[in-house]
Amino acid sequence: MFSIFIQLIVNGIAAGGIYALAASGLTLITGVLNLINFAHGELYMLGAYFALSAFVGMNFGFWSSLFASMIGVGLLAVSIERLVFRPLRYAPPINPLLASLGVSIFLQNASLLIWKARPQRLEGVFADSIIQLGDIRISMQRLLVVIVAISLIILLQFIIKKTWLGFGIRAISQDLTASSLMGVNIEKIAPATFMLAGILAGAAGTLVGPIFILQPTMGALVGLKAFVLVIVGGAGNVAGATIAGVILGIVENLMDGFVSSKYKDVIAFLVLIFVLFVKREGLAGRDVS
Amino acid sequence: MKAMKGNYKPVAIITSFFLLLALPVALESNYHLHLVIMVCINTILASSLNLVLGYAGNASLCHGALYGIGAYTAALVSTNLGLSPWVCMIIAGSVAGILALPVGLASLPFRGVYFAVATLGFQQIINLVTVNWDKLTRGPMGITNVPPFVVGSVPLGMKGLATMSMVLAGFCVFSCWLIVRSRIGAELRAIRDNEIAARSVGINSFWVKNLIFCISAAMAGVAGSIFAHYTGFVSPDSFTINVSVTSVIMVLAGGIGTLGGGALGALLLTLLPEMMRFLQDYRMVLYGISLVAMIIYLPNGIIGLLSYRNGLFGGSSRGEEEGA
């Protein structure tokens, strides 16, 4: 029983790494640019498919596929910002939210056309290698997820804390008007933020490729959950989103193993409503009274 | 209240509505009649949402689920208890209205985008419960053989169904008009435009918003029950987040906070995917693009094109507190 418990936690950490990657990019978009982007899950889905195309179609190795997919999704995210969110930058916040849902319909159906509905799989570098520690089995692929996720999130923290780009991102998240007056150009920071978020989502998608099955709809639920994590961790808070992501991964796996697999997807949304209640003051949508 | 500007307008609207009722008689193909029925169902759904979104200023993203609750209630009650579809419609509306109360109580303290996000959470929860509670809902397989609408013991034909749904849609729009014209409607607009000011003159804003949310949900439930009895089949796929989003876009596209907006948007968004059928596989791709384009280029909807009014949506009085 105890070893099952540990096993579920180990699997949960790997799942949580994926959530963390998806959510840490999204939290930048939400926190910095004040916009709610429900198309983020589709970037994650495209990450998996870009890697698949690079791996199968162009005979790239796993690492170069990962890199190609990160860059590809990053550039796609920039173009989405350019075409959809820039025209809506000063519109009421519900408009970009709805537009992002339109983008997600578009991306899902475009991928359906390109890669068809047939579930596919990306072969990993560590096809089936498994580390055995007593009763606990860790597949190399899941370990890889955790390692890459940790490295990318540390890198992201470094970019935010130490570089000029991060400086601009933090300035804009604090006060758009003031930082614009100080010479921070939102028209440069916004695409850069989307690029970072796209890169992380692309990495997340590529990493799950060998673990889960690839389908054009695979991103929908992940995108919504990533958004929940953004709210739970605090918009713009990368560390918060990461921790919340790992916890969600573990809780979902425990629920799956010990209670029922049916309702594990409900947890995130129950948490969302609960957190919205508790943190009302911390969110910008606070009650003005 | 555009309809009240001149005395001739209500007369013109009522006359044209009765003239429109002749449409199902004139249509021959079942496909066209099907479209008429779907436009009417969507009109009810969009008008119900317009009450919450346009008049109360709350963008609900769970109307697809409330519509689904109506459809499932009608399907379950009619298949298990054998009640007449007309009774089921009333039950479905009441159940959706009652179940909306906890949703509203939990979500309405939030404003703007956060209300949308909270209702989106409920949309997902309700949908996941519908998929997984197989003992009641039969899960993804859905409920088949929902009895059709009957008069006496004769099932309504396509023409009858089309006429019936037009009458019901007209009735719903008329109820919206009554609500908007009532004291509640005035209070709603006051809250939408400035909630603090509204409260300071003694309007219980939370109660009013909840009430209108439940009324709106009941109307969405009625739309769902018509759908269930018309198609004879309900499954969780018909009530996903996509339905919620589409209905919000219907309201936006038609004209937010206008009585005809729901109907116009329903007409546009029901016919648009049908008109795109010749594109075959590319249809949904272009549909996604047209939704985005509509939000960018037509933020005030079709009615907004005809008569420009400022601050229809997220007007300056609300905009600033909503940013994340």
Structural topology:
The complex is a heterodimer of chains A (289) and B (324).
Chain A: H1 2-33, H2 40-57, H3 62-85, H4 94-115, E1 130-133, E2 136-139, H5 140-162, H6 164-174, H7 176-181, H8 186-208, H9 218-233, H10 238-259, H11 264-278
Antiparallel strand pairs in A: 1-2
Helix pairs in contact in A: 1-5, 1-6, 1-8, 1-9, 1-10, 2-3, 2-4, 2-8, 2-9, 3-8, 5-6, 5-8, 6-8, 9-10, 9-11, 10-11
Chain B: H1 8-20, H2 23-26, H3 30-55, H4 63-81, H5 85-107, H6 112-132, H7 134-137, E1 150-151, E2 154-155, H8 158-181, H9 183-193, H10 195-200, H11 205-231, H12 241-254, H13 259-275, H14 283-297, H15 301-306, H16 316-319
Antiparallel strand pairs in B: 1-2
Helix pairs in contact in B: 3-8, 3-11, 3-12, 3-13, 4-5, 4-6, 4-11, 5-6, 5-11, 8-9, 9-11, 12-13
Structure at a glance:
The complex is a heterodimer of chains A (289) and B (324). Chain A has eleven helices and two strands.
Nearest-angstrom radius of gyration of chain B?
A: 19 Å
Number of domains of chain A: 1
Order of helices and strands of chain A: HHHHEEHHHHHHH
Q: Which CATH architecture of chain A is right?
A: Orthogonal Bundle
**What proportion of the residues of chain A form beta strands (DSSP E)?**
under 5%
Largest sheet of chain B: 2 strands, antiparallel
Average of pLDDT of chain A = 83
Strand order of the largest sheet of chain A: 1-2
List the helices and strands of chain B in order: HHHHHHHEEHHHHHHHHH
Secondary structure tally, helices of chain A: 11
Verbal overview:
The complex is a heterodimer of chains A (289) and B (324). Chain A has 289 residues and is mainly alpha-helical. Chain A has one domain: ABC transporter involved in vitamin B12 uptake, BtuC. Helix content of chain A is 73%, strand content 3%. Chain A contains eleven helices and two strands; from the N terminus they run H-H-H-H-E-E-H-H-H-H-H-H-H. A two-stranded antiparallel sheet of chain A has the order 1-2. In chain A, a hairpin with a 2-residue loop joins strand 1 and strand 2. Chain A starts with a helix and ends in an 11-residue tail after the last helix. The C terminus of chain A is likely disordered. With 324 residues, chain B is mainly α. Chain B has one domain. Chain B is 72% helix and 1% strand. A two-stranded antiparallel sheet of chain B has the order 1-2. The chains are: A mainly alpha (289), B mainly alpha (324). Chains A and B meet through helix 4, helix 9 and helix 11 of A and helix 6, helix 10, helix 12 and helix 14 of B.
